[in-house]
Structures are given as structure tokens and as C-alpha cells.
Design goal:
heterodimer; A: 189 residues; mainly alpha; 54% helix; 0% strand; elongated; B: 606 residues; alpha/beta; FAD/NAD(P)-binding domain; Cholesterol Oxidase, domain 2; 2 domains; 6-stranded antiparallel β-sheet; 5-stranded parallel β-sheet; 13 helices; globular
């Protein structure tokens, strides 16, 4: 039994457009992150990178609590993953970025990376409207990018330590437990 | 030092392969006398070797995989960003998800475009455990699909197990008498209870006394504690007569008398292997202490292809080994042979071996070998947000080696109209390292980010594990044509979930939703899909025990009815699957079998 690639992709949904990293790419990425160096692109063009960087930052921006996707180098991460993904995954991303760019120029006569916060808000509000069941290619690309941004951001040091203030990976003298009577806790039981 | 970078991980892997080659080359047939050969080094193999070696019996343990260095390979504390791939596999080692596994032929089709699929997602599909697990391309199966997760490494699956440690009860051992399906076990809870006690004391188990007849208590060490979300569900479902209890973990929380193990400090990701060895891992909990007696020899790289039978005596004389590295075949001899190669692998060995009359299929005069294959059906469950817990302070909830367990409530006092037997649920609440609810949180921007953070401590999730009935027609046999990479015939599966499982699965999803709703959950996401057969990694049966040699393969001590010096001591001997996770029962059943074996050895009966 062999199955058409399209059928596999369909069964997997968003998971199929999730790219992977090789050893060499992984090492290169680690170096860039550690040095806070400018991006060393392995797949995307400078223009595509600028669009993706702005797009991911719009999805998870910096705020009072923590830096956002840009500081967490989410676009670099996606670029490196894409460099070793299969053709179909790569096409999904290059086509999606082109669509976003075209929509930005159609509406505002500006590149996506040049849009004002209000213009970004307006555009993303429209393309995220049906995110539970995306219909148009651009709506689908929003969901793909959002999932990848979530993965990249919340597995980064900024995402885990500064944003979520994660408390794991350290010694616990005693296991954490609920001590709130309003939740049903009864002392001594 | 734990290996962290991809290069270090590959270096440790290569070093352990090299160590294993040297160790295997130094252990040759005929060089030493062994009383007992133990095939396999997981929970059952470790327990068998420990019991015998500490009693002064000379044991040769044969492990198909390589040796393992717990101090470097258990990467318990590693952050996701320490590896830029964030724990995922390299590009050439793509992992399969459940949806793909259901669609592709084993091993994943033959077309070039499927070449990249190598590993099952979530078990070997990460950088932490994939060096321990077999590649289906080298170890294929045929027949119906079955996600057969096999660890070929010292300690087997105990290096990555989920640590849920539950006793079975007479609701399980005598289930057939209660509902008329299948057969009772030849033992009752009273027979096994003293051995559960000994396992508890030797290995350490964390939990709370609950006095529930369907889930007998262990001799517990310091318990884990329920966090706020779990406490809320506990209170809500208590009104329905259901019990949510702190998880029971095969982890020492107060310490045990074992120089290789330290008590739990509630830190990291236990499923990658615990670098404190607070979790029960067969190497440090059983094999290393057994080796220290001087009575245990461990030969890695030893794929056993056949049990050798002396036709004059109808006794096992030893086993044939194919060295996994050199491919050289060699025969090791001993007075007793014990199979602890894991459910299905032990059965496969019996199917491969010839009885005294030369026919293939050893210890199978009953015709029950390979049959009554059972496990746990899993997948259905639910997750939700508990609004009263939004914005609460972040706590360390990942550090607990188990979270919460919902005890079986179906067909205990009442009788469900749609199905027999029951299911338990595993899950919990709290601030996990990865906020997976973000993928279901709508929108973007600061509002999205703040919502993810606010709801992070308020997540709750439960997944059910249900008993799959041990049906005679669910079977494995040898494939007549296909061999594995060592030239050994592979297993052909004829195994499907039945009507009872599918009806139970519907109820699992319904009750998971009902319980989270009762606790005040919002945005409840119900999972109704049953995962692929095998996904629970709780395969059981196929060489079941029984009093009647006409309907079972072994007696209650794992001794085969047909060959008196041949024992099976892993999950293969289970008569039914129960819904309780099997490892603690495997350990107790094995200990009981070893006490019997020692007595028989002393009396000269073997």
C-alpha cells in the first residue's frame, strides 16, 4: 500500500508543515543565539526573513512582561528548520510569505515589515478571523505561522524563563500541593 | 556529566556501542558455568537476575541491545533551548505521528518518499530516548498495524517508563467469575500481596492510603500532593462516588537501601530517565546490585534466536545467540532458561524454538501460545481551563514524578449496560513547561500572549487507559516469509480492538468531559479518537498462565507446562490486562516465580 503524499499531508494538518533541523544547522543556530549575532539565513531571503520576523513579532510581541518573538529569534529558528524541510513544506512557507506581502501592498502600498502597529492589527484581525477553521490560503498561513511561532517562542529561554516564569527543573524540598480550602483542601487529609 | 549537545549524545552512544562490543567479545560459550540464563534486562529480567544472583545462583543475562551509562544518558534536567532542535530529532530521523502510523505499511511503506520515517513520535521521536529504541526498518512486523515500541538497551523500557505503579486486585484476577468473560487467573490477590509488599520495600513507591478494593494500597513512601486543579476535580467527582488520588509512582521519595539510587528531589523530566535514579530503572535498581554479588554476568549485543531443547530429556539446555554486532551465532548453556524479553518477544522466541519432537512452537501443547493478546486502549480524554485558577502564582508541578490518577469506577459496584471491565485515568493540572493550550488560544498580539500566561496555571487534562479483553482470536504468529535484520522470522499480528473496547472508549471521552465540567472547567476539549493499537506500550498476554495445561502456557510461577526448566516471567504470562498499569505486577509476579524456582532448584526438580 502506498499513499499519495497529499493524503498524508491532509491527515496531518498543520503538523506536516512543521520543519526539522540537521546537526550542522542546529550548531549554527546555537552560535547565532549565543552571540546575538545578525541572522545567518540558510533558506529564506532577506526580504522573506524581514516579513516573517515582523509577522512572528506581531503574533507574540514584546510587552511589559517579556521580550517577544523577535528577541527570541523565532524567525531564525523557522528559517533553519525550513532549510532542511521537504519541498512541499518549503513551498507552503514561501508561498504564504508572498501572499502576506502581496496583501500588505494591496491594502497599504507598503511592505508588511513597514506597516504601522494599527495596520498590522487590522490585517491580522482579518486573516485570523476563521483560525479555528481557516478557509483562504492566507488564513491557513496565519495558523501555520502562529503554531510555529508558539513552538519557537515557548521553547526559547525568553519564553520559558521570562514570559512563563517557569518553576520546574529545580530541587523541590517538598512536593507542591494545594492548601486552599476553597478548592476543597482539608488540612491533615 | 550528562551529555547535552547532539555531538556529546552521539559520542556517548558510540562509546556505549564500543563498550558493548568489548563486553560481548569477552563472554564466550563454554568459558564459565551458569546455573540460569535470563533473556532480557527490563523490569522482569532485572528482577529475575536480582533474586537469583543475591541467592548465590550464577546467572548469565543476555540483552539484545547495548549497555547504558545512566550518569550520562539520563538527561533529566536539560532545557529545550539547550538543543536548538528543541528536543526533536535530526532531519534524517523523522518521527511518525499517530495519524501517519495508521496510514503507512510497516515498516512505513517501501516507496522512497517514506524513507525519512524512522521512529514513533513521542516514544522514540525525541533526542532523549531514540538511541535506546529499535528502528522498525530493522525490526519490521507484518499483519495488522501495531505500534510496537521496543527498547533494546540495558534496562529496556524501564529507562523511559511512565512510573505509574498500581496493584491489581481480585476485580482483575477473578474478573471472569464476576462477568463471565474469559478465564480467571490461577492466582488471587492474596497470593501476590506479600510480593507486592516486598517490591514496594525493595524499590520504593510513592502514594497515599485510600482503602479502595479495586486498587489495593502499597507500602508507600512520602506521597506526591495534588495541586489546586487536581484538588478541584477530586472534590467535584467525589460527589459522583469517583476517586481522584495522588499518582502512585515507582519512585523512591524517602530513599531505599541501594547505593546507586538517591531519593526524589522533584526536579526534572522523569521520562528521559532519572539521573538521581529515584525512579525505578532496572539497571541501577536491580542489575548493578545483582552484578555486585559477583554472580551476574551481563552479555550485551546478544539477540537470542532460539531456545535449545535436549530431545532426550525434554529440557532446555540453553539458548542460541546471534551477536548483534559480529552476527556470529553461538550457544550458551545453563540448567534453567528464563524468558524476560518482553511480551511478544518472549512469545516470539517460543514460537521460533523447536520442541523435543522437532516441531516449531515450543511449550505450545495447549495451542494458546501467541493468543489472548491484550493491552490497554488509550486516547480518549479531555482537557480544559479552570477559570478560578487563572492568574494564580506559577508553581513547580512538573517536578512531581506523577500527578493524579482517577481510579476505575466502572463495573465495580454497578454494571454498565454497554461494556464490561473498566478504565482509569492519568493526568493532572498545573504550570507545565510547554503551554500547549496556546495552540487553542485564539488571536494574536499582547492580548493573546496575556491570555496564554493567565490560563497557564489553570490547565487540566486527563487521558483514560482501558482494559482490552484478552480474546483468543487476538494473536501473533511467525511470518512465514519475512526475517528481521538478524535473519530471524518476524511476528505477524492479527490483533484488533473489539466492540467492548470501542464502547468503553466512547464512555471514557464522555466521563472525562463530565468530570472536567463538574469541576467548573471551561473551553473543554474532548478527545474521542482511539490511538493506534500498541500506543499504550502495555502489551500483555500471549503466553498466559493457568492451572490447566490444556488452555495455558505456564503455571502460576511462569514455569512452562511442557518444559519444566523453562520459565516466562514478563507480561506475556498475564491472563487479562486489567486497566491498571502492569509494571508493578510484573515485578511482583516475577519475584514470586523466582522464590518457586529457587526452591525447585534446591530440591533438584529442574
Amino acid at each position: 500500500m502506498t499513499i499519495p503524499r497529499r493524503a498524508v499531508v491532509k491527515a496531518l494538518g498543520a503538523a506536516a508543515v512543521w520543519p526539522y533541523l540537521s546537526e550542522a544547522s542546529a550548531a549554527a543556530f546555537a552560535g547565532i543565539q549565543a552571540a546575538q549575532a545578525p541572522p545567518k539565513l540558510t533558506f529564506l531571503t532577506q526580504g522573506q526573513y524581514a516579513t516573517l520576523d515582523a509577522f512572528s513579532e506581531a503574533i507574540i510581541p514584546a510587552d511589559d512582561q517579556s521580550p517577544g518573538a523577535r528577541a527570541a529569534r523565532v524567525a531564525d529558528y523557522i528559517d533553519l528548520l525550513l532549510s532542511e524541510s521537504d519541498d512541499q513544506t518549503q513551498r507552503t512557507w514561501t508561498a504564504g510569505l508572498a501572499l502576506l506581502e502581496a496583501e500588505s501592498r494591496r491594502r497599504f502600498k507598503l511592505a508588511f515589515a513597514q506597516l504601522s502597529p494599527a495596520q498590522v492589527e487590522q490585517l491580522l484581525t482579518d486573516i485570523s478571523r476563521n483560525e479555528a477553521e481557516p478557509r483562504t490560503p492566507l488564513e491557513q498561513f496565519f495558523k501555520v505561522t502562529k503554531d510555529a511561532t508558539i513552538r519557537g517562542y515557548y521553547t526559547s529561554e525568553i519564553g520559558i524563563q521570562q514570559e512563563l516564569e517557569y518553576k520546574g527543573n529545580r530541587v523541590l524540598a517538598e512536593f507542591v500541593g494545594c492548601t486552599h480550602p476553597e478548592h476543597g483542601y482539608e488540612p491533615g487529609k | 556529566m550528562q551529555a547535552t549537545t547532539p555531538d556529546q549524545v552521539q559520542q556517548v552512544n558510540a562509546e556505549q556501542h564500543e563498550e558493548s562490543r568489548k563486553a560481548a567479545a569477552s563472554i564466550k560459550p563454554g568459558a564459565a558455568q551458569y546455573d540460569v540464563i535470563v533473556v532480557g534486562s527490563g523490569a522482569a529480567g532485572g528482577m529475575a537476575a536480582f533474586q537469583l544472583a543475591t541467592a548465590g545462583i550464577k546467572v548469565l543475562m543476555l540483552e539484545a541491545g547495548r549497555l547504558l551509562d545512566p550518569s550520562r544518558e539520563y538527561r533529566t534536567m536539560e532545557w529545550p533551548y539547550a538543543s536548538p532542535r528543541r528536543g526533536r530529532l535530526p532531519a534524517e530521523e523523522y518521527a511518525l505521528g499517530a495519524a501517519e502510523y495508521n496510514m503507512l505499511d510497516r515498516p512505513y511503506g517501501t516507496a522512497g518518499r517514506f524513507e525519512k520515517y524512522r521512529k514513533l513520535l513521542s516514544y522514540s521521536g525525541n533526542t532523549f530516548t531514540h538511541n535506546w529504541l529499535v528502528d522498525e526498518k530493522h525490526n519490521p512486523t507484518t499483519g495488522t498495524k501495531y505500534a510496537w515500541v521496543r527498547a533494546r538497551v540495558l534496562g529496556g523500557k524501564t529507562n523511559l517508563w511512565g512510573r505509574v505503579s498500581l496493584r491489581m486486585s481480585d476485580y482483575d484476577f477473578k474478573a471472569a467469575s464476576r462477568d463471565g468473560f474469559g478465564d480467571d487467573w490461577p492466582i488471587a490477590y492474596a497470593d501476590l500481596s506479600p510480593y507486592y509488599d516486598r517490591v514496594d520495600t525493595l524499590l520504593g513507591i510513592s502514594g497515599t492510603q485510600e482503602n479502595l478494593p479495586q486498587l489495593p494500597d502499597s507500602i508507600f513512601q512520602r506521597p506526591l500532593k495534588l495541586n489546586c486543579g487536581e484538588q478541584l476535580v477530586k472534590r467535584a467527582i467525589a460527589k459522583m462516588g469517583r476517586h481522584l488520588i495522588p499518582g502512585r509512582a515507582g519512585v523512591t521519595t524517602d530513599g531505599v537501601a541501594n547505593k546507586y539510587r538517591v531519593k526524589c528531589a522533584g526536579r526534572g523530566r522523569c521520562g528521559r530517565g532519572c539521573d538521581f535514579n529515584a525512579s525505578m530503572h532496572s539497571p541501577t535498581a536491580l542489575i548493578f546490585p545483582a552484578r555486585d554479588t559477583g554472580n551476574l554476568t551481563v552479555r550485551p549485543n546478544s539477540t537470542v534466536s532460539e531456545i535449545l531443547i535436549d530431545p532426550r530429556t525434554n529440557k532446555a539446555s540453553g539458548v542460541r545467540v546471534i551477536d548483534s554486532h559480529t552476527r556470529e551465532a553461538m550457544d550458551f548453556t545453563a540448567r534453567v532458561v528464563i524468558l524476560a524479553a518482553s511480551t511478544l518477544e518472549s512469545t516470539r522466541l517460543l514460537l521460533l524454538s523447536r520442541s523435543a519432537d522437532g516441531a516449531r512452537g515450543l511449550a505450545n501443547s495447549s495451542g494458546a501460545l501467541g493468543r489472548y493478546f491484550c493491552e490497554h486502549v488509550m486516547g480518549p480524554g479531555a482537557s480544559a481551563t479552570l477559570p478560578m485558577l487563572k492568574n494564580r502564582p506559577i508553581t513547580n508541578d512538573d517536578g512531581r514524578p506523577q500527578s493524579a490518577y482517577v481510579v476505575r469506577f466502572r463495573n465495580i459496584e454497578d454494571k454498565h449496560p454497554d461494556f464490561i471491565r473498566g478504565y482509569g485515568m492519568q493526568g493532572g493540572s498545573g504550570s507545565a513547561e510547554y503551554p500547549s493550550q496556546a495552540h487553542n488560544t485564539p488571536g494574536f498580539g499582547v492580548k493573546f500572549k496575556r491570555q496564554v500566561k493567565a490560563e497557564h496555571p489553570a490547565q487540566i487534562n486527563f487521558t483514560a487507559f482501558g482494559e482490552v479483553l484478552a480474546r483468543r482470536e487476538n494473536q501473533v504468529e511467525l511470518d512465514p516469509a519475512l526475517n528481521d535484520a538478524w535473519g530471524i522470522p518476524v511476528l505477524r499480528f492479527n490483533y484488533r480492538f473489539g466492540d467492548n473496547e470501542m464502547k468503553m472508549a466512547r464512555d471514557m471521552a464522555d466521563t472525562a468531559e463530565e468530570m472536567l465540567r463538574a469541576a467548573g472547567g471551561e473551553d473543554i476539549r474532548v478527545r474521542r479518537d482511539v490511538l493506534t493499537e500498541g500506543w499504550s506500550i502495555h502489551e500483555l498476554g500471549t503466553a498466559r498462565m493457568g492451572s490447566d495445561p490444556k488452555t495455558s502456557v505456564t503455571n502460576s510461577f511462569g514455569q512452562t507446562h511442557d518444559v519444566r526448566n523453562l520459565f516466562v516471567v514478563d507480561g506475556s504470562v498475564f491472563v487479562s490486562a486489567s486497566c491498571q498499569n502492569p509494571t508493578w505486577s510484573i515485578l511482583a509476579i516475577c519475584w514470586r516465580a523466582m522464590d518457586y524456582l529457587k526452591g525447585e532448584l534446591k530440591s533438584g526438580n529442574l
